């Protein structure tokens, strides 16, 4: 009887450990964790599908025409090729909304220009369509309080 209970307890502990290990990657990629992670180019990190996206925007100054840069990597931080991919961002702050088409700018990045104010309420929705037709979307608040990119 005791041997049976020991086996059951061992099996339960094994299942609990396996569940914790399986859940760790999911927890490691939430927005709060990504905001606490230092990004390679000083932007805000977000995860969508199989990729990490780093959005780099102007952090201060007046509203006007500013660059928008997006870097693409995998979950391990390895740069990912964006050849043949298309990207578009919708940027909104208050009542001002801008759409920007981002062009490939190097092996793993997109770049474009848009009129936006570098304000704490700036939100950016990025849509990337890869050459194979797959699509991923990420939402950023790059200048919000508490964002590492601020």
Give a topology summary.
Elements: H1 2-27, H2 31-36, E1 44-48, E2 51-57, E3 64-73, E4 86-93, E5 96-104, E6 109-116, E7 123-129, E8 135-140
Describe this structure in words.
With 150 residues, the protein is α+β, with helices and mostly antiparallel strands. It has a domain at 37-140: Periplasmic metal-binding protein Tp34-type (Immunoglobulin-like, Sandwich). It contains 2 helices and 8 strands. Strands 1-2-3-6-5-4-7-8 form an 8-stranded antiparallel beta sheet. The chain starts with a helix and ends in a 10-residue tail after the last strand. The model is unreliable at 20-27 (pLDDT under 50).
Based on the model shown, name its key terms:
eight-stranded antiparallel sheet; 40% strand; Immunoglobulin-like; alpha+beta; 150 residues
As for the CATH topology of the domain at 37-140, it is Immunoglobulin-like
Q: How far do the termini sit from each other?
A: 61 Å
Number of strands: 8
Query: DSSP strand (E) fraction?
Result: 35-45%
Determine the fraction of residues in helical runs and give it as a percent range.
Answer: 10-25%
| Biggest beta sheet summary | 8 strands, antiparallel
Q: What overall form do the CA principal axes indicate?
A: globular
Name the CATH homologous superfamily of the domain at 37-140.
Periplasmic metal-binding protein Tp34-type
Let me know the average pLDDT.
85
Cα-based radius of gyration, to the nearest Å = 20 Å
- Main structural class: alpha+beta
Name the helix and strand elements from N-terminus to C-terminus, one letter apiece. Answer: HHEEEEEEEE
CATH architecture of the domain at 37-140: Sandwich
Query: Helix tally?
Result: 2
Poorly predicted regions: 20-27
Strand order of the largest sheet: 1-2-3-6-5-4-7-8
What is the CATH class of the domain at 37-140? Mainly Beta
């Amino acid at each position: 009887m005791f041997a049976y209970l020991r086996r059951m307890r061992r099996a339960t502990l094994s299942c609990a450990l396996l569940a914790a290990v399986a859940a760790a990657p999911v927890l490691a990629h939430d927005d709060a964790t990504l905001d606490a992670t230092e990004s390679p180019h000083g932007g805000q990190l977000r995860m969508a599908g199989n990729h990490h996206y780093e959005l780099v925007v102007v952090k201060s100054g007046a509203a006007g025409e500013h660059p928008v840069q997006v870097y693409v990597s995998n979950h391990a931080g390895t740069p990912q090729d964006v050849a043949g991919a298309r990207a578009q961002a919708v940027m909104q702050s208050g009542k001002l909304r801008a759409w920007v088409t981002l062009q490939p700018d190097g092996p793993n990045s997109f770049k474009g220009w848009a009129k936006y104010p570098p304000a704490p309420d700036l939100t950016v929705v990025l849509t990337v369509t890869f050459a194979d037709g797959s699509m991923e979307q990420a939402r950023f608040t790059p200048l919000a309080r508490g964002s590492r990119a601020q």
